[in-house]
Amino acid sequence: xxxxxxxxxxxxxxxxxxxxxxxxxxxxxxxxxxxxxxxxxxxxxxxxxxxxxxxxxxxxxxxxxxxxxxxxxxxxxxxxxxxxxxxxxxxxxxxxxxxxxxxxxxxxxxxxxxxxxxxxxxxxxxxxxxxxxxxxxxxxxxxxxxxxxxxxxxxxxxxxxxxxxxxxxxxxxxxxxxxxxxxxxxxxxxxxxxxxxxxxxxxxxxxxxxxxxxxxxxxxxxxxxxxxxxxxxxxxxxxxxxxxxxxxxxxxxxxxxxxxxxxxxxxxxxxxxxxxxxxxxxxxxxxxxxxxxxxxxxxxxxxxxxxxxxxxxxxxxxxxxxxxxxxxxxxxxxxxxxxxxxxxxxxxxxxxxxxxxxxxxxxxxxxxxxxxxxxxxxxxxxxxxxxxxxxxxxxxxxxxxxxxxxxxxxxxxxxxxxxxxxxxxxxxxxxxxxxxxxxxxxxxxxxxxxxxxxxxxxxxxxxxxxxxxxxxxxxxxxxxxxxxxxxxxxxxxxxxxxxxxxxxxxxxxxxxxxxxxxxxxxxxxxxxxxxxxxxxxxxxxxxxxxxxxxxxxxxxxxxxxxxxxxxxxxxxxxxxxxxxxxxxxxxxxxxxxxxxxxxxxxxxxxxxxxxxxxxxxxxxxxxxxxxxxxxxxxxxxxxxxxxxxxxxxxxxxxxxxxxxxxxxxxxxxxxxxxxxxxxxxxxxxxxxxxxxxxxxxxxxxxxxxxxxxxxxxxxxxxxxxxxxxxxxxxxxxxxxxxxx
Length: 740
Ligand code: ADP
Prior knowledge:
About 60% of the residues lie in helices and about 10% in strands. It is an alpha/beta fold. Helix 2 (about 30-60) runs antiparallel to helix 7.
């Protein structure tokens, strides 16, 4: 009867384990699926064993008794097959599982047939019950085969044995073998079912079943972290876009100022402004690039380009960056590099300039070596670009994190070195997008070497044949183009003014209009222009749409250049494909504008009249800046962007004029719940207010812009009075200021 008590104990434990296991949430893994079957099979086995022992002791020896005994043998076969299958998948990977699955099922079915056919006898002797005969012997044989497979799986994975998953397997090897031997030599001692129950319960504690609630919480946390990350990226990219417009003014006006005959100190300060504005522009571009890379929106745009010009541009840029730093800049450009290549030269330049800028930044003295060698195979030129420096070097443990965004090292040593930690992350992504490779070697304290390999297609043409610039100009000297007519179209008045200022250096008095429609009207009125500079992102009619309308005018043949802050690579090709003659990114780069003017505008024979001293427009001096400051206007902010009171006053007058038409329209769009147009107008109001230092109104307009972009009509209506009150305040201040 002791066998019955052991079996009853096993039954209780088995039921408890099943209850515990099936009521808890589980990870959906193969391991868990097998274990679920083992648990059920084990419970059935215990019940069969209890029935068989009870029947034997109560003297029931009928057909039912034989069936129960046979079923029990099937149970033993099922348990050992499942357990050895479990050991094998624990030891090997999923691919292996697919291979052995069919073999296992095959062996199991054949064994079931043999067990069903072979006879099984049972006996009650001295109060003990046991089964024997060919069927039982076969079961011992096949079990031994399975045990061997378990041992093999262990031997093949000796190194993993420490994992707790192996505990039940090891336990089985020892206890299972011992129990089988005891059972074989003493058939009357019934310990197999108990031993299998013990191992099954033991397995329960070793199967990795993490707390599902925690996993759910982790998943929620992961989702919200991902959302926050993408919101951050969107925010950065929106901000960067917003920053580009005022930067346009800063760079443009500073470039213009640089040309003036300023006193030496002022000249130096203008240079500093220009340098800072340019580095801010680099940061903003970096953020825009990384957000595009993360959103998989960065495109590689391949065009034909001059390899020599690319290298020359890079070398002169870096030479200027080195300035008077005691660094020797050694360059070696392979002479055999084909003159015309096909690829994304803008991005290649960005990669090389990033590496060289870092080499210059992180090297106090010594040298920076820039080498470009080539391997030519058929029509492919592999450019092997290396940048080596004798700088601070990178610690071995930091090399792995080098290409991760926002990672910067040695911050104590580099407190004064500017940087965002984005350069190398962008560089690596660009290299990989072009199918290239980048490797780093560095000895901490001695220097670093970055090597990039990129394949470019060789175009078997000369520079002339490819229509590429053969003269590589270094100095930009504005020429006299008096008499030339240029029309600038931009919905932002400040941008118009920057363009006008830059064109003034060429003695060009540009016509300025605020919309595509005005541009079309001018052309329809018979105005002739040597060049039209057209902004693209304008409300109502984009620059591209305006161009299409212009092209529909019979006889229209004026060159039109796209002018936009959306300065990403590939834009030039897109604009050219949509009919523009060329493309100028904002903030307008003097050199690029110069190249365009050289191409489209005639030089004048007239003598250059120095009218720099002349004000742009008539000035009014009877206004007091103190008054504005006292009214809480952030005049300094306004002056930072607009330069002087003269320009400020002009912009203010324009703001008043603009408000006369803008404000009724804002009201109209709000009432019509036309949030798209409402957003455009409050956005424009926000930009103007920022330029003029009306910061509270700028903030409120921004809130309305955001709300209307999200179609949050309730917010707009609720806060509309607040916005209009502030508009009223601003207009009163302005009227008083102008003494109206
Ligand atoms: P940034 O230069 O703007 O900080 P990067 O992504 O270009 O960002 O570089 C990441 C970091 O890698 C740098 O902050 C610097 O610590 C290290 N690093 C990059 N290039 C070099 C170099 N040539 N020598 C030493 N350290 C470097």
